[in-house]
Amino acid sequence: MKIGTEERKAKAPYSLNSKKVADATMLWLEKRGVKIEEIAELVMLLQKKYYPGLTMEECMHNVEQVLSKREVQNAVLTGIQLDLMAEQGLLIPELQDMVANDEGLYGVDEILAFSIVNVYGSIGFTNYGYVDKLKPGILERLNDKTLGPCNTFLDDIVGAVAASASSRIAHRKQAEREQEQGEDTLGKDIVR
Amino acid sequence: MKIGTEERKAKAPYSLNSKKVADATMLWLEKRGVKIEEIAELVMLLQKKYYPGLTMEECMHNVEQVLSKREVQNAVLTGIQLDLMAEQGLLIPELQDMVANDEGLYGVDEILAFSIVNVYGSIGFTNYGYVDKLKPGILERLNDKTLGPCNTFLDDIVGAVAASASSRIAHRKQAEREQEQGEDTLGKDIVR
Amino acid sequence: MKIGTEERKAKAPYSLNSKKVADATMLWLEKRGVKIEEIAELVMLLQKKYYPGLTMEECMHNVEQVLSKREVQNAVLTGIQLDLMAEQGLLIPELQDMVANDEGLYGVDEILAFSIVNVYGSIGFTNYGYVDKLKPGILERLNDKTLGPCNTFLDDIVGAVAASASSRIAHRKQAEREQEQGEDTLGKDIVR
Amino acid sequence: MKIGTEERKAKAPYSLNSKKVADATMLWLEKRGVKIEEIAELVMLLQKKYYPGLTMEECMHNVEQVLSKREVQNAVLTGIQLDLMAEQGLLIPELQDMVANDEGLYGVDEILAFSIVNVYGSIGFTNYGYVDKLKPGILERLNDKTLGPCNTFLDDIVGAVAASASSRIAHRKQAEREQEQGEDTLGKDIVR
């Protein structure tokens, strides 16, 4: 709940430090075994068909830009937190069972994933569903229940970041195309 | 991530027990100081203007029906869990700061709330935003930061349950109206 | 915008007839060449792996139940309406171009689809994205741009109805499983 | 449906011109009687309490930035289109009745509004619900059913643009605060 909050915070000693939140996001992805390169590979898999000249550098850059958004960082940290708690058996028993077993009727992991995809608009929904179902590359490893860590949230989050980066590329490529055509265009202004 | 999950679970000893999840939801709402009557009072506040004959019994019944949905239970338990962890200082430091201080740019509480509202369709969005901003009744108490417990998630969740119960009433009242008018109607079949 | 509306309607001659809206939904799906059986086939494709005993009758029943929800009917009728207008060239020119050409950066069709999927909770997101990307069965035909009709909205809507019916089956099968196991259970009460 | 689309478009003569879509959005808002200043006044109303030094120039600038996003333009044009069609009585009869009468159980207008709010994250949900319920300023006029035009979609859209601009301001003000404090900060990089 956000509203009275802002008034209250005028006096509170707490002050959000955006850089710390951003750094924690990158640190925890790494701690949980996720490399930016691996997310970029998912992006390449999703987009190379449409943009044959797409490079891994571009994919990595777009993943990093997605991860620089506050909503994305909030979802990443919250999801990893719940995975960590489940791994240590610290959740309310009924929630513990559902998260630890990645229960089919527990959908909060998908909900967090969608809060990531939404930031780049509805065109990312399809890509998210697709990689989430097929689990290529890193998603197969994250989803392997025999390996120890609980990644109930993390695999959905990684898929969502890749889908968002794909949407971001689609928006940017359109802007580039219009600029090249010398059209009277908004160019870079239209994109995030 | 839900897919391979279902296959895996064929062998797994884990089996979801819906009644336990439902019971835990009611128990934890109570433990966190939320009474069904108080949520029903929010519903009455939102709906009495449109349905002057609305009774508290109806409001309570509709709140209970909302709370019987799995998606709602998942969101309630997950939100309370994060509040609990924040209260005990157990979260990742950067997340701890944001949840404990109900940081204005942290919106995962609203995201969980919306997963509740969504179950009864988009007509609940407005009611949710309205009670969340004005914080009548129980929401004022839950949002009072001087009282000890961390309710960053819980106040949004309670507002969302009230908004959903309001949507449910709107759908049901329409069905009743059509039945009374003796119209060739779908009656109760159309409603959840 | 819904609020003053309800007051106003007390006096207004207009009165929603739910049966007419439901009938119009079925009629327009048929007019646009979509058979319930074909949506049921998508459901079977998505679910047979998890429920080997699943019958076409069950799939059809679940599709029909999804189509009996008001939010779903609203999305189906609104989407078909926009397809119809695009086919006749009646839209605002810039919108006409985007809808008629199923522009990659136009995502309102996905947004309507998600309002359908949401009604059965987040577990349907993945199934929607999957069928929307692979376009099996009827979705291939609906998406064939050489065939005349504009189905920019309809193909997403059909995929979303199939994904929702899949979610509904997952919820119901869990309830059946618990009942068979003679567990102290909520049984049918928990499901829609 | 977006996927095969991209391949097909390689050959198609159609090519999205982003500037035209952006211009059409501004033109149609104006044609429907909505001034940027009026949306900015809603933003001021929502935010002046938290940022006493906020100027109308800032509010207008943020509204313009929100309106420069493709997802927002898509929702604005599609919503105005449906209002226009309803005004001319051109919709499928059952849909016509619901849109022309702003039926309480028809929620596609809220769904389009939420696709706008989502672009700036979940913190805008509350502001949207609040202005949508209280209808200050321009929203009262848009919602006045005695005035002729059908604004079933437009009033929700205007409220959503104001809520999004409020979220954008909250994100930016945080960045400014951190920069002023000379913190090791991400500054402008974190914001859209």
Automatic annotation (TrEMBL), chains A, B, C, D:
Q: Which CDD domains match?
A: PgpA
Q: Which InterPro entries match?
A: PgpA-like_sf (IPR036681), Put_PGPase (IPR026038), YutG/PgpA (IPR007686)
Q: Single GO molecular-function term?
A: phosphatidylglycerophosphatase activity
Name any Gene Ontology BP term: lipid metabolic process
TM region(s), chain numbering: none
Domain (YutG/PgpA) spans 39-170
Task: Indicate, by first and last residue, each region the UniProt record lists as having compositional bias (Basic and acidic residues).
Answer: 173-192
Positions of the region Disordered?
170-192
Please give the name of this protein.
Phosphatidylglycerophosphatase A
Protein source organism: Paenibacillus antibioticophila
